[in-house]
């Protein structure tokens, strides 16, 4: 059974097994969660309720519903099951809730059983020295459900009143915007025969007669060994390039592997999965209309370190890189001053900031120019984009941005989806870099 057929079967099953709480809510036929992926992970942005009759838009206020654990920002009726700028009479009620990045968000702490499992993995892998190749759990959760309560009477267009009641309305379906547009596939390593699962996004109007840039995103260690879609939900490092606004500016293919193990460690060891990733990119170039001069790489923490290793191994592969919250041995990074790089670290991430700073100092000793700036990480997305435009205006191919304060994880909560940074990356060309340096 293919994925589409399976999904249809699940929806049919859900329709036939509507939770008692939903049926008891009166006239609600279905409840669907609409999710967005932010820098700190997937979050419910709205719930769409389908009623058995058209609801009068004027009968609704933000106080008509309460959503557990979330602040309601808008409530309106609609003729279609989707969000809108203005409500109209219709059978759907849209309850929007506040979504914002929490710069202090922390990963879920492992249970005692999970810690014991990790210790057993350590033992089997030879102790705590070599960490590359270990799995870490990938067990953080990014919920896609919500529970609502109708707490005020609402009115249908024919004048009927649907009275408030204390019955919970539990969502039974979920849509994750942008992330749902990725396909899940797998690649068999030509070196080990092991399978690497990955997510791939193709532009909606993909045309094999055109040539598209490709963005490769590599997740952090905390996501290793999770479900294949985990890298799409744990932050927007992959999805930000596929957002409608980003695609309108630059049509591109996006690839986001889900690594079964940690690919690099803090002792500069790395696993064979990076060679497999390079082989995956080569296979994708044979399969899709990819512009070989515009393949880009980005990653956070482990993903940043993995990107650096691949650029050192294959300096001819990538046209540019966005390196977020990572590091590598500065003594080995000298050759990277011939690449197009934008490094972002938080001042509170002392190791990343210091080691990347040492690499920058080495490049300057070698005669390279590095543009450097400090940004307030609490600025709005538009303000950060304006800062990026100012920094890239100098035309430098090596840039280093410090985000004020923050922490290791907060770096990637902020760094992705900034239009000015995306513009810089897509300006880079492999052939131009080779010719000029």
Task: List the keywords.
disordered N terminus, Rossmann fold, alpha/beta, 2 domains, single chain, 5-stranded mixed beta sheet, 437 residues
* Order of strands, widest sheet: 11-12-14-13-15-16-17-19-18
Structural class category: alpha/beta
The description of the largest β-sheet is:
9 strands, mixed
Fourth-level CATH superfamily of the largest domain: Alpha/Beta hydrolase fold, catalytic domain
Give the number of domains.
2
Helix content: 25-40%
Low-pLDDT segments, ≥5 res: 1-24, 126-130
Provide the CATH top-level class of the largest domain.
Alpha Beta
- DSSP E strands, number: 19
> Mean pLDDT, rounded to whole units?
90
Distance between the termini: 52 Å
The tally of helices reads 12
The rounded Rg comes to 24 Å
Query: What would you say the CATH architecture of the largest domain is?
Result: 3-Layer(aba) Sandwich
Overall morphology: elongated
CATH topology of the largest domain: Rossmann fold
Report what the structure shows.
This protein is an alpha/beta fold. The chain has two domains: 3-103 and 142-176, Sandwich (Immunoglobulin-like), CATH 2.60.40.2180; 179-436, 3-Layer(aba) Sandwich (Rossmann fold), CATH 3.40.50.1820. It contains twelve helices and 19 strands. The strands form four sheets. A nine-stranded mixed sheet has the order 11-12-14-13-15-16-17-19-18, sandwiched between helices. It has a five-stranded mixed sheet with strand order 4-5-2-1-10. It has a three-stranded antiparallel sheet with strand order 3-6-9. The chain is elongated and about 75 Å long. The chain starts with a helix and ends with a helix. The model is unreliable at 1-24 and 126-130 (pLDDT under 50).
């Amino acid at each position: 059974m293919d994925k589409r057929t399976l999904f249809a079967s699940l929806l049919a099953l859900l329709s036939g097994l509507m939770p008692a709480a939903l049926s008891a809510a009166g006239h609600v036929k279905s409840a669907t969660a609409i999710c967005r992926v932010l820098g700190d992970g997937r979050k419910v942005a709205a719930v769409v309720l389908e009623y058995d009759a058209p609801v009068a838009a004027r009968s609704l206020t933000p106080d008509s519903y309460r959503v557990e654990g979330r602040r309601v920002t808008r409530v309106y009726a609609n003729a279609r099951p989707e969000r809108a700028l203005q409500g109209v009479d219709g059978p759907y009620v849209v309850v929007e809730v506040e979504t914002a990045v929490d710069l202090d968000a922390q990963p879920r702490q492992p249970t005692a059983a999970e810690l014991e499992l990790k210790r057993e993995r350590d033992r089997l892998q030879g102790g705590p020295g070599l960490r590359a190749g270990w799995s870490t759990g990938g067990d953080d959760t990014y919920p896609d459900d919500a529970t609502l309560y109708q707490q005020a009477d609402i009115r249908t267009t024919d004048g009927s009143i649907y009275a408030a009641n204390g019955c919970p309305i539990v969502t039974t379906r979920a849509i994750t915007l942008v992330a749902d547009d990725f396909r899940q596939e797998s690649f068999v390593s030509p070196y080990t025969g092991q399978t690497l699962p990955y997510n791939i996004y193709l532009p909606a109007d993909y045309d094999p007669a055109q040539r598209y840039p490709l963005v490769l995103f590599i997740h952090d260690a905390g996501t290793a060994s999770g479900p294949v879609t985990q890298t799409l939900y744990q932050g927007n490092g992959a999805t930000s390039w596929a957002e409608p606004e980003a695609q309108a500016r630059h049509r591109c293919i996006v690839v986001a592997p889900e690594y079964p193990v940690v690919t690099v460690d803090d002792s500069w060891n790395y696993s064979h999965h990076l060679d497999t990733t390079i082989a995956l990119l080569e296979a994708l170039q044979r399969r899709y209309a990819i512009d070989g001069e515009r393949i880009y790489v980005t990653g956070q923490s482990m993903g940043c370190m993995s990107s650096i290793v691949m650029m050192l191994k294959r300096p001819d592969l990538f046209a540019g890189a966005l390196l977020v919250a990572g590091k590598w041995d500065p003594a080995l990074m000298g050759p990277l001053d011939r690449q197009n790089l934008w490094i972002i670290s938080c001042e509170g991430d002392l190791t990343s900031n210091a080691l990347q700073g040492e690499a920058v100092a080495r490049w300057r000793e070698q005669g390279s120019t590095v543009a450097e700036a400090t940004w307030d990480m609490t600025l709005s997305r538009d303000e950060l984009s304006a800062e990026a435009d100012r920094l890239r205006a100098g035309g430098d191919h090596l840039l280093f941005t410090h985000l004020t304060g923050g922490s290791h994880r907060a770096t990637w909560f902020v760094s992705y989806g900034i239009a000015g940074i995306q513009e810089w990356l897509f300006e880079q060309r492999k052939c131009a870099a080779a010719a000029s340096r």
